[in-house]
């Protein structure tokens, strides 16, 4: 019998504030701390909510080193995009290695993976919708496998689309979607990676492959949240 995987959860960014605090120009609420933390706890992991990493190399490196000495795996959000103040990848590289950076998906392109002092590190994007999608599609199955489970990738449902998608995209799309009264897949009109509103409205993710187009009634893959959060 295995013990529960212990996960250190860290957010990155000087702009982050807690809900209830007054926001100044350029500041945002730390939605990922609560959204990703709740998801991981719901999957049965022991989640340890760590400090917010400052946008400074030495401070980030010290906090990551301490977290890696205490927990089985690290999950961070933010700090993996291209930016002068994003020191996270450099800190990871000094403590371990960055094995992967960027996926051909939308949202979620800046996802990163590597290790810190021998412990797995999963770097989620900072934008909340992108963090949620990569947590569901990448972090969830990886961590469940680390926990000793094997059947961790849910099979999508092939359902008719209630919308047109006339313009092909270069990356695989994961659209926040739900089923209408006729059992067709409809998508929220706001699909920006910074918007959690669409996720709270949705029942799952509609998947459109790179370069694909579709029309109303065409079959589309649908991943229910009920399967992705189990």
UniProtKB/TrEMBL annotation:
GO terms for biological process: Mo-molybdopterin cofactor biosynthetic process. Residues 8-145 form the MoaB/Mog domain. InterPro entries: MoaB/Mog-like_dom_sf (IPR036425), MoaB/Mog_dom (IPR001453), MoeA-like (IPR038987), MoeA_C_domain_IV (IPR005111), MoeA_C_domain_IV_sf (IPR036688). It catalyses: adenylyl-molybdopterin + molybdate = Mo-molybdopterin + AMP + H(+). Keywords: Magnesium, Metal-binding, Molybdenum, Molybdenum cofactor biosynthesis, Transferase. GO terms for molecular function: metal ion binding; molybdopterin molybdotransferase activity. One of its GO terms (cellular component) is cytosol. Its cofactor is Mg(2+). Gene3D superfamilies: MoaB/Mog-like domain, MoeA, C-terminal, domain IV. Pathway: Cofactor biosynthesis; molybdopterin biosynthesis. Its EC number is 2.10.1.1. Belongs to the MoeA family. NCBIfam families: molyb_syn. Catalyzes the insertion of molybdate into adenylated molybdopterin with the concomitant release of AMP. This is Molybdopterin molybdenumtransferase. It comes from Pseudomonas aeruginosa.
């Amino acid at each position: 019998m295995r013990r529960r995987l212990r996960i250190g959860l860290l957010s990155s960014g000087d702009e982050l504030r807690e809900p209830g605090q007054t926001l100044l120009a350029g500041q945002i609420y730390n939605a990922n701390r609560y959204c990703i933390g709740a998801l991981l706890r719901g999957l049965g992991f022991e989640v340890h909510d760590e400090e917010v990493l400052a946008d400074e190399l030495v401070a980030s490196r010290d906090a990551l080193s301490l977290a890696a000495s205490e927990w089985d795996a690290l999950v961070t959000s933010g700090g993996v995009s291209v930016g002068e103040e994003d020191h996270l990848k450099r800190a990871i590289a000094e403590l371990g290695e960055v094995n992967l950076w960027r996926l051909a998906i939308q949202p979620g392109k800046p996802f990163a993976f590597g290790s810190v002092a021998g412990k797995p590190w999963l770097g989620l994007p900072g934008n909340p919708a992108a963090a949620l999608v990569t947590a569901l599609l990448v972090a969830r199955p990886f961590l469940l496998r680390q926990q000793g489970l094997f059947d961790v990738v849910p099979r999508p449902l092939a359902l008719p689309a209630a919308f047109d998608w006339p313009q092909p995209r270069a990356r695989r799309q994961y659209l926040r979607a739900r089923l209408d009264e006729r059992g067709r897949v409809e998508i929220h009109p706001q699909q920006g990676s910074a918007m959690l509103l669409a996720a709270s409205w949705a029942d799952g993710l509609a998947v459109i492959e790179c370069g694909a187009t579709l029309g109303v009634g065409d079959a589309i893959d649908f991943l229910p949240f009920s399967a992705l959060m189990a």
